[in-house]
């Protein structure tokens, strides 16, 4: 596939989604998305493992489900697993990716193809986080800070303290990355 300006635009837009999902600023900001999961948290963000959808059976709380979603997405994006990356996006997130596609100009035609192309162009086994190249094999070592909204229908996540935070929403009992 030839990299035309239209294809490069799609790559930039989708790469922006990935950067938002993992933080792309290295100022170590302490912004609004500080961890909320402290013992005795009055907002109740650490209780009710049943609210984590399919994670209730394993006893994981919502923070663990959110962290798993972010890590799975980053690994899928880094390795070019477009099907898995797009499955981890919210309906709005997937629609935003698909709106940015430029199949008429020879660019990717689906969300899946967009992530496959990004990984191909980037080398296929790492992702940029906070200005550093992180191999897919090291994504489990990222420190993620989770802040769940009081209504428990959305959350923000910072990776290694780097803003901007990734936004996740609950859809059909699962946490999905949003692109807003």
How would you characterize the overall build of this protein?
The chain has 180 residues and is of the alpha+beta class. 36% of the residues lie in helices and 19% in strands. It has helices at 5-22, 62-79, 82-87, 91-100, 111-122, and strands at residues 126-129, 132-135, 144-148, 154-159, 162-171, 174-178. Strands 3-4-5-6 form a four-stranded antiparallel beta sheet. It has a two-stranded antiparallel sheet with strand order 1-2.
Looking across the biggest beta sheet, what order are the strands in? 3-4-5-6
How far is it from the N-terminal to the C-terminal residue, by CA? 29 Å
The count of β-strands is: 6
Tell me the major beta sheet: 4 strands, antiparallel
**Radius of gyration, taken over Cα atoms and rounded to an integer in Å:** 16 Å
Q: Write down the secondary-structure element order.
A: HHHHHEEEEEE
* Individual helix count: 5
The residue fraction in helices comes out at 25-40%
Mean pLDDT: 72
Shape: globular
């Amino acid at each position: 596939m030839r990299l035309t300006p239209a294809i490069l635009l799609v790559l930039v837009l989708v790469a922006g989604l990935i950067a938002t999902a993992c933080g792309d600023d290295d100022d170590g900001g302490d912004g609004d998305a500080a961890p909320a999961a402290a013992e005795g948290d009055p907002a109740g963000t650490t209780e009710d493992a049943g609210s984590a959808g399919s994670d209730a059976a394993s006893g994981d709380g919502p923070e663990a489900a959110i962290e798993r979603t972010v890590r799975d997405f980053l690994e899928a994006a880094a390795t070019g697993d477009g099907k898995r990356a797009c499955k981890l996006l919210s309906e709005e997130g997937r629609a935003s990716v698909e709106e940015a596609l430029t199949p008429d100009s020879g660019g990717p035609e689906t969300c899946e193809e967009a992530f496959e192309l990004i990984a191909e162009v980037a080398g296929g086994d790492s992702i940029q986080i906070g200005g550093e190249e992180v191999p897919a094999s090291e994504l489990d070592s990222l420190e993620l800070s989770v802040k769940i909204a009081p209504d428990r229908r959305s959350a923000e996540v910072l990776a290694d303290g780097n803003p901007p935070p990734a936004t996740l929403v609950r859809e059909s009992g699962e946490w999905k990355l949003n692109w807003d």
